[in-house]
C-alpha cells in the first residue's frame, strides 16, 4: 500500500503519480491545482482478500455475521405461532390474535424498513463493525423487553424496536460479508446466509409447539420463554461477532490505509499458518482519494442515474420475491385449516417442512451462482419458481391437491424461489460502489419489505380470506406473475458478477479517474 501526497511542485522535483513514479515539475497553475488535491492511496487490499483460500477465519465471519438471519426467521415464525395463545385468557397480556398478526406484524415490518435506512446510512459513515454490534444490541434489548410485556402498547413498541434492529442488521451484515468473503465464494456464501432465515423458521415452528404446551409451561410463561431463548441465541452470536474485524475495504476508503494493511496481513498470517503453504500472489491495485462521507444527493445520483439499470433490476427482484412469498405464506395456516381441515395445532409441522425446502434451495444451488453465473441462475430460479407456482395454482383450483401434496408443491416452488430471493440481496450488495453499498442494500430491502409486508398482505388477505378457491388461486398467480417478470428482467439486466472483485463490478466513487481496478 502506497500513499502519495500531491503537494506543491517545487523546482527540480515532481509530484507523485498514481503508478508510483514522479510527475515532472510543471507550471505554477499545475502546482496550485496539485496542492488542492487530497492525498491518494494505492492499495492491493481488495486483491489480497479475493485471492484467499477458504479457511477457519472465513467460517468465523460466516458464523458471527450470518447467523442473524436465523434470529429473524425465529422472530417472525414464533410471533405468528403464538398469536392464538397471547389472545387467550391467562396469557398475561390483554391483546387479541388480530392485533398480534396485524398491528404488531405491521409495526415489526415498519421498524425493519426504518431500521435498514437509518443504520444503513450509519454503516457507510462509521464502519461495518460498529454498526453490526450496535444493531444486534438493539435487537437483544428489544426482544428481552418484549418477553416481559405487561400491556399491548408495550408489546407493540418493542416489536417495532425489534424490527428496527433486525432491519439495521440486513444493511450492516450484507455489506460486511461481501467485503470480507473472497470473490470465488461470495455468491454461494451470500445465498446460504440469507437462506438461513428458514432455519430460524423451522426452529420457531418446533419451538412454539413445545413452549405453548400448557402441560409443560403455564399459559403466561411459555410464550415469554420463546423470546428469552432468542435473546440467549443472540448473546452467543454477539460473543462470536466481537472477533469479526472491520472491513479492510471500508478502512482504506476512509483513509485508514495502515490499519487496513495490518488487518489483512494478520488474516494472511492466520491462513498461511493453517494451510502450511504460501498464498498466491495478489493481482491488481486501485488508487483512491479517501473520503470521510458521501452525501445523500451523490448516493441517489449514483444509484438511480449512473446505475439506473441495476437499480431497476434490484427493485424488480425484491418486489417479485416479496409478493411471491406473501402469495404462498400469507394466510398459510388459514389455507390449510379452511380448505383441508388441518387442525390449528398441526399447521406448525407443515410449515417446518416447507421451511426446510426454502433452506435447501440456496444450500444446493448456491455454488452454481459462482460457476454457472449470476445471470443464468438468477433469471432461471425466478422464472422456474414462478412457472411452478402457476402450476400449483391450477392444481389447487382444480381440486387436485391435499394438505400434504399442496405443501409438497410449495416445497418445490420455494426450493427455487428461496435461492432467487437470496440472490436479490446478493445482487444489490455487490453491484453498487463501495461508498453506497450499505445504503443501497437498506433502500432495496426497505422497498421490498414494504411491498411484501404491507401492500402484499392487503391484497392477499382480501383474496385468501374470502374462502373461495378461485380467489386463493388468483393470489398465487399474482405472486407467480411478478416472479416471472423479475426473472425476465434479470435475463436482460443481471450483472455478470461471478468470481469478480467488487471494485471491478462497480468502481468506488473515491477511485481516481486515471486508475481503475485491475
Question: What distinguishing features does this structure have?
Answer:
mainly alpha; two-stranded antiparallel sheet; 71% helix; disordered N terminus
Descriptive overview:
By secondary structure, the protein is mainly α. 71% of the residues lie in helices and 3% in strands. The protein is built from 21 helices and five strands. It has a three-stranded antiparallel sheet with strand order 1-4-5, with no helix packed on it. It is globular and about 65 Å long.
Main beta-sheet annotation: 3 strands, antiparallel
The chain-level mean pLDDT equals 83
User: Order of strands side by side in the largest beta sheet?
Assistant: 1-4-5
Fraction in beta strands: under 5%
**Low-pLDDT sequence parts:** 2-38
Helix content: over 70%
Chart the SSEs and their pairings:
Layout: E1 2-4, E2 15-16, E3 22-23, H1 28-36, E4 40-43, H2 45-50, H3 56-66, H4 68-86, H5 97-126, H6 128-147, H7 152-180, H8 186-195, H9 197-211, H10 222-241, H11 248-253, H12 257-275, E5 286-288, H13 296-306, H14 308-329, H15 332-340, H16 347-371, H17 374-397, H18 403-430, H19 437-464, H20 469-493, H21 502-505
Antiparallel strand pairs: 1-4, 2-3, 4-5
In short:
With 518 residues, this protein is an all-alpha fold. 71% of the residues lie in helices and 3% in strands.
Amino acid at each position: 500500500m502506497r500513499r502519495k501526497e500531491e503537494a506543491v511542485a517545487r523546482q527540480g522535483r515532481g509530484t507523485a503519480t498514481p503508478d508510483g513514479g514522479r510527475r515532472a515539475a510543471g507550471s505554477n497553475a499545475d502546482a496550485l491545482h496539485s496542492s488542492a488535491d487530497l492525498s491518494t492511496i494505492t492499495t492491493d487490499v481488495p486483491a489480497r482478500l479475493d485471492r484467499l483460500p477458504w479457511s477457519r477465519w472465513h467460517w468465523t465471519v460466516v458464523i458471527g455475521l450470518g447467523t442473524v438471519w436465523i434470529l429473524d426467521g425465529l422472530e417472525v415464525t414464533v410471533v405468528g405461532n403464538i398469536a392464538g395463545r397471547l389472545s387467550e385468557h391467562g396469557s398475561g397480556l390483554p391483546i387479541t390474535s388480530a392485533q398480534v398478526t396485524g398491528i404488531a406484524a405491521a409495526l415489526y415490518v415498519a421498524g425493519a424498513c426504518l431500521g435498514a435506512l437509518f443504520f444503513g446510512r450509519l454503516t457507510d459513515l462509521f464502519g461495518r463493525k460498529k454498526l453490526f454490534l450496535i444493531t444486534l444490541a438493539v435487537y437483544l434489548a428489544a426482544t428481552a423487553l418484549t418477553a416481559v410485556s405487561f400491556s399491548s402498547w408495550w408489546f407493540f413498541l418493542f416489536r417495532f424496536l425489534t424490527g428496527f434492529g433486525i432491519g439495521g442488521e440486513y444493511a450492516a451484515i450484507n455489506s460486511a460479508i461481501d467485503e470480507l468473503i473472497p470473490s470465488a465464494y461470495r455468491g454461494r456464501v451470500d445465498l446460504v446466509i440469507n437462506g438461513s432465515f428458514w432455519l430460524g423458521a423451522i426452529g420457531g415452528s418446533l419451538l412454539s409447539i413445545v413452549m405453548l404446551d400448557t402441560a409443560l409451561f403455564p399459559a403466561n410463561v411459555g410464550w415469554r420463554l420463546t423470546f428469552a431463548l432468542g435473546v440467549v441465541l443472540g448473546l452467543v452470536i454477539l460473543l462470536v461477532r466481537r472477533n469479526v474485524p472491520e472491513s479492510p475495504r471500508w478502512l482504506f476508503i476512509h483513509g485508514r490505509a495502515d490499519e487496513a494493511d495490518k488487518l489483512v496481513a494478520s488474516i494472511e498470517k492466520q491462513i498461511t499458518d493453517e494451510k502450511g503453504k504460501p498464498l498466491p500472489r495478489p493481482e491488481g491495485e486501485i488508487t483512491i482519494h479517501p473520503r470521510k462521507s458521501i452525501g445523500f444527493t451523490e448516493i441517489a445520483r449514483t444509484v438511480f442515474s449512473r446505475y439506473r439499470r441495476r437499480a431497476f433490476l434490484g427493485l424488480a427482484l425484491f418486489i417479485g420475491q416479496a409478493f411471491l412469498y406473501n402469495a404462498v405464506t400469507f394466510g398459510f395456516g388459514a389455507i390449510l385449516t379452511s380448505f383441508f381441515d388441518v387442525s390449528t395445532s398441526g399447521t406448525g409441522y407443515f410449515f417446518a417442512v416447507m421451511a426446510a425446502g426454502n433452506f435447501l434451495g440456496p444450500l444446493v444451488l448456491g455454488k452454481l451462482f459462482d460457476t454457472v453465473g449470476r445471470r443464468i441462475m438468477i433469471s432461471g430460479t425466478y422464472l422456474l419458481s414462478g412457472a411452478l407456482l402457476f402450476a400449483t395454482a391450477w392444481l389447487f383450483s382444480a381440486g387436485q391437491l391435499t394438505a400434504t401434496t399442496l405443501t409438497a408443491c410449495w416445497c418445490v416452488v420455494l426450493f427455487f424461489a428461496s435461492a432467487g430471493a437470496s440472490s436479490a440481496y446478493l445482487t444489490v450488495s455487490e453491484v453498487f460502489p463501495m461508498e453506497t453499498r450499505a445504503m443501497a442494500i437498506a433502500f432495496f430491502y426497505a422497498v421490498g419489505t414494504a411491498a411484501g409486508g404491507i401492500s402484499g398482505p392487503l391484497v392477499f388477505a382480501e383474496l385468501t380470506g374470502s374462502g373461495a378457491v378461485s380467489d386463493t388461486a388468483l393470489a398465487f398467480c399474482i405472486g407467480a406473475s411478478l416472479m416471472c417478470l423479475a426473472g425476465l428482467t434479470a435475463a436482460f439486466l443481471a450483472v455478470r458478477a461471478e468470481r469478480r472483485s467488487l471494485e471491478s463490478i462497480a468502481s468506488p466513487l473515491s477511485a481516481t479517474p486515471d486508475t481503475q481496478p485491475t
